[in-house]
Amino acid sequence: MKQIQLRDALTKDTTPALLPSLLAQLEAPQTMLDLSAVSTIDSSAVSLLLACQRRARQRGIELSCSNLPEGLRSLTELYAVGALIPDEAAS
User: In the chain, which residues have pLDDT < 50?
Assistant: First the structure.
């Protein structure tokens, strides 16, 4: 399983630049996004993760997340997309 570490802020100011490089890293059949080093999030983090999930599915990749910040978990519940962003802690 490939693990990709996300760091610092996942906000409207950072996610547009991060998205292309993150999508390019989605290549292993099983990939996990580790969010343990993420310090700040806003709703654009949900969009980022959904874009990654969409690309992963197109490529036949099983994508999951670990260490989702509580605020991000709350946003995925608020937007009713929690099932689309698999969280290892919820397994």
Answer: none
